[in-house]
Amino acid sequence: MAKKKKNLISIIPAFLLMGAAVGIQTTDILRDTAIGLIVGIIVYFFLTRRNKNINKTKS
């Protein structure tokens, strides 16, 4: 079985860019970019915690 790559950190810039794209459309770039960054960080920590719990139950 192939080992999983740990590319979870790339989720933060993805949310940042999505927030910037929405900000361009709504003409409030900085606010929506900041919201995207915060949401990206929250999702990152949620997924790392979930993955740790899943790995504990498998072992």
Model description:
This protein has 59 residues and is mainly alpha-helical. It has one domain. Helix content is 78%, strand content 0%. It has two helices and no strands. The protein has helices at 11-26, 29-58. Helix 1 (11-26) packs antiparallel against helix 2 (29-58). It is elongated and about 50 Å long.
Describe the structure concisely.
The protein is mostly helical and about 60 residues long.
Strand content: under 5%
Mean pLDDT: 88
- Cα(first) to Cα(last) distance is 16 Å
Radius of gyration: 15 Å
Question: What share of the residues lie within helices?
Answer: over 70%
Contiguous runs where pLDDT drops below 50 for at least 5 residues: none
The tally of structural domains comes to 1
- State the helix count: 2
Oligomer: single chain
Rough outline: elongated
Report the order of strands and helices. Answer: HH
The biggest beta sheet is recorded as: none
- Structural class category: mainly alpha
The number of E-state strands comes to: 0
